[in-house]
DNA sequence: TCCATATTTCAACGAATATGGAAGTATGGC
DNA sequence: GCCATACTTCCATATTCGTTGAAATATGGA
């Protein structure tokens, strides 16, 4: 993954509403949610939310598809794993004792 | 981890220079690097870098200690693991098939 | 076709951020 | 004490970001 893309994704997530949107969609899984439902759930103006969704989608963190009058957004898990892998890269310079704590934490986080 | 803290950490990482600083320090491990060395490595003005280091440290992503005339910065791995755990939280709403790809990617990323 | 719903785009404003010059603080050596 | 080194803090400026009202687009139903 390129550094620019990582920054773009981190920027997209680095805002309270956008992080909430993303986490909400992560929990929804591939089914996703229409923009309107997200706006209601998070109590954000539709046009404001639209800008936020666009930003997340441009960063590759969300996918969008039309379903009738609604536009359904869903989290892109690959983008998320790529970002995490990038952040963990080269974390111990070959010394396992250094990054063992991180590896442990990640293993515990595996939710399934 | 609180949402606010997650946003603060994501914001701190969401800038090319700061991400480079953090990755550089992750690779250095607990030994860390003096501010001046980082400035030279990344070719950033000392005062600009100082502001960036302060921001990363305030987010808890870096620790600092004085060593003679130098101030040595090191990556805080716990902060990083906490952030990653937070980002992975609730990722599959109880359905293992959904987040298996993420779990796989993270397992592959375990560098040691 | 006409209307209502769902969402986006545009333009503009205030707020927050990034950077750099200049001055300040802390440490170590003479 | 004095000076050089290593960083930081302060301040001003330019840029970017987030939000909102208003207008535009797309879809589905009567």
Automatic annotation (TrEMBL), chains A, B:
Source organism superkingdom: Bacteria
Protein name: ArsR family transcriptional regulator
Organism in which the protein naturally occurs: Hyphomonas johnsonii MHS-2
GO MF: DNA binding; DNA-binding transcription factor activity
Keywords annotated in UniProt: DNA-binding, Transcription, Transcription regulation
Residues covered by the HTH arsR-type domain: 1-95
